[in-house]
Structures are given as structure tokens and as C-alpha cells.
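[audit] Reproducing an earlier prediction to check determinism. Same input, same settings, fresh worker. If the C-alpha cells differ from the archived copy the diff job will pick it up downstream; this log only records the rerun itself.
[audit] input (249 residues):
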Amino acid sequence: MTTTDPHTLTGAYALHALPDDERAAFERHLAGCADCGREVAEFTATAARLASASGMAARPALREQVLHRITTVRQAPPGPAAVDQARRRVPRLGGPLRWALAACAAAAAAFGGTAVWQYERAQEAHRQTAEAERHADEVAGVLAAPDARTRSAQLAGGTGTLVVSTARDRAVFVASGLAEPPRGKVYELWFADGGRMRPAGLLKPDRVSQAVLMRGPVEHASGVGITVEPAGGSPRPTTEPVGLLDIPS
């Protein structure tokens, strides 16, 4: 670390590529360097966006195929008269042929059900991918805003960086290297706003580094806190904050 400019280590830090001694030294530098804090936030958000780009949308023709198959499925059995008429017109089938046709009918029904299931899964995957892309775009918008300001602090064994855009009235919290919360617990973010703590989102407990678009506008908040709460979050803090950051001016 004595021969390396710490300003060149932001990308390696965001990707957890630094050895323990360099990471610790860089985190001490990061706590007092707003430029590095913003770069780490941008690198972390970019890595998260690249990870979400692996989603696969359904083939355009799949929907039409499924809808076509639905139209070929009888919705109700024929009446007694139609059944009697069909019996008179269709000869009785022998054993092997009868079983073969039954197997074909079962296979066709199974294929139709599988197609519908695959279509529904593809639609859900497409929705999740679209939400991830929208979230990444909103995070990137705050990080790249011309008026973006940052504030960093060490907390929970790692570093938290707050990025605020006054023009957008939104904030992004970038966590890097946080210790995993206890089982059944999550880190919850709060806006300190007018003497009360306003819930602002949850961090994913299985990720040591992540960028979170905080819920709701910044408005007149004076700071941001992070506490350990039961899974799913709490309407108000139930523990002492593990970290506090002032809103950067």
C-alpha cells in the first residue's frame, strides 16, 4: 500500500480483489475520500447491473404457440347425443392400437401443460429482469447525477457510502464488505427526518456488497441510519444503529 496510489484501487475494492491488508488500508482512506467513495459506488452498481443482464426473455413465438394450443383443447365434454352418434360412426379399436392412441393423447396433454408452465415461467423471468434493469437504471441515474454528493463511513465490518442527488430527491446506499447479519436478521436503512426514523429499504442479507436505491424521497432528512432488524424489516428501529451518516451537502 505504500507504493500504490489508493485512488487506483477503487475498482479492485468493489470487486473484492484486494488482499486483507490492502483492503483495510483502503477502507481507512475511503472514509475520508469522497471521490473514491463515489467511484466505489459506481463500480459496485455497474457490477450489479452486469450480473442482472443474464436474464432471458421468452421467445416471441412462444405466446402464440401456447394460445393456439389452448384453442384446440375441448372445454366441455359433448352431450349424450353427440357421444352416441360418435360411437355409431367410429369402429371399436383393438387393444394395442387403443393403448397407443391413449398414450399419444396423454403425451399431447402433457406437452400442452408443459408449454403453458414454461410460458408462465418465462413471463415471470422477464418481469424480474425488467425490474432489475429498472432498479439498475435508477441507481445509475443517482450515481451519475451532476449534483451527486457522497458520504462514506465504516460500519459493520465494512464501508457504507451514501450518494444523494438533490435534483432527483433520491439517495443510493452502497454497502461494501459488510459482515453478514445474524440468521433471521437483515440490515435496514432509515432516513432521519424531522425527529423520526423513516424506513428506507432493506439490504439483501446474502450480499456483502450491493447498491440499494433508498425508498422514498430524501426531502428534509438530515441523515441516514442502518440497524439490524428481523427478516422483513420493522416499522421503526428496534436496535441501536450500527452506522450513521449525515446527508452530504
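[audit] rerun output stored. Observation attached for the diff report: The first strand starts at residue 149 and ends at 155.
[audit] end
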